Amino acid sequence: MSDGSSIETLVAILRSEVARLSPGDRLPSSRDLIARHGVGPVTVSRAIALLAAEGAVVTRPGSGTYVAARRPRPAGGEPDTSWQEVALAGRHVPPAAPDEQPERLPPGTVALSGGYLHESLQPTRLLGGALARAARRPDAWHRAPAAGLSTLRTLFARQVGGDVGPEDVLVTGGGQGALSMLFRAVAAPGDPVLVESPTYPGALAAARSAGLRPVPVPMDDRGLRPDLLADAFAMTGARLLYCQPTFHNPTGTVLAPERRRQVVDVARAAGAFLVEDDFARLLGHGGLVPRPLVADDGDGTVVHLGSLTKPASPSLRIGAVIARGPVMRRLLGMRRVDDFFIARPLQEAAVELLSTPAWERHLRTLSGALQQRCAVLADALARELPDWTLHRVPEGGLHLWLRLPAHLSEADVTSTAPAHGVSVNPGRPHFPAEPPAAHLRLGFAAAAEPAELAEAAARLAAATRAN
Length: 467
Ligand SMILES: Cc1ncc(COP(=O)(O)O)c(C=O)c1O
Known about the structure:
Layout: H1 4-20, H2 30-37, H3 41-54, E1 57-60, E2 64-67, H4 83-88, E3 110-111, H5 124-136, H6 150-160, E4 169-172, H7 174-186, E5 192-197, H8 201-209, E6 213-220, E7 223-224, H9 226-236, E8 240-243, H10 257-269, E9 273-277, E10 302-307, E11 319-322, H11 326-338, H12 344-355, H13 357-384, E12 389-390, E13 399-403, H14 410-416, E14 422-423, E15 425-426, E16 439-443, H15 450-465
Parallel strand pairs: 3-14, 5-6, 5-8, 8-9, 9-10
Antiparallel strand pairs: 1-2, 4-11, 6-7, 10-11, 12-13, 13-16, 15-16
Helix pairs in contact: 1-3, 5-12, 7-8, 7-11, 9-10, 13-15
The protein binds pyridoxal-5'-phosphate (PLP).
């Protein structure tokens, strides 16, 4: 067995053994470790490689593994890095994106925070198979073209439809990488970027990191308001709009049919790019998913962004930008400066995954599961917290967006909830300017099972009573 947990366990055992021994002492042989701990040779060699990388041991091929000479540690146990404060002083401090989900929640916590699927909803077996088939290709470790593998580009082009072709697609490292690249490509530091209010905090962070100034444009329950969008372009002179017309994060809103054309026309009239973040295209709950704006765009106004991390796994960091004209050439140039190309084995695995008929089956199952979870959480909240206002029961995506009653503060609820065994995301980071009211974003995809969602609503109610 060589799974992550057996490696971690062996590393912990060896670490304490190393602490008892002196520098230069020899560790038991691999054969001894296999026999003593009932693990396989791969687990042993990975555990030793980890300890060697930490500097705790050194390996001498043909001789064995030895405790490394200890580096002197300062009294507090932490290395003295205060020199860095001087070295970094006066440098631009890039804005940090809020951490939506700590890496480990306390045991027993129900996760209503975070923006990815629980492992039980991820196509783990399909991903494993896809990765194994990808690894067996003779060219798996060759260089990949800067724009991405042509088969993968074709698959992404087909996903959006219209007359989009593979030549319009640039493969990226997920949606966040694409956003960060795009904002740097189409605007200069100091420029305004129009955004829906509320919006995705990661987009705000990427825009600010590129030196841009996010300017809010109000939405209603039919999405971005074209009249106010036109005003915002006129007032700011912005040449860039970032929006999510389909299953908007955090509200779940879908831009209404009659507004879809209008919004593109307003951006075109302003001579601006419209970045369509279509992160939730494959997260519909069973109803019709509208055509992406880019499918009906003939002049390169719309730059479209999609990603596989949400419907598959956060570690399948593969996304795509669809763009036409000089902006695509600029993005390709940036790719060659930033990181040359996206790792080929991951691209090959994405091709394998999207090409198997089981992928479509996974999407259908996922859609049903999301719809069920969404309904369970919405019903439980209506029962347990009737004075919280649910913006809408969304027809796609992973979240509910709720307005808190006036007597509750966002900070109180988000700080009390963990003690009651539930984690939530505050609404504040979603607003580019002053929030109009206190909100929470509650996800229904990160919990282990639907029954946990009803329990989470009861825990939230208990947490609010404690305020
Ligand atoms: C609206 C939106 N866009 C883009 C992303 C980035 O996702 P990823 O980088 O995992 O593809 C997210 C992630 O939460 C998101 O919510």
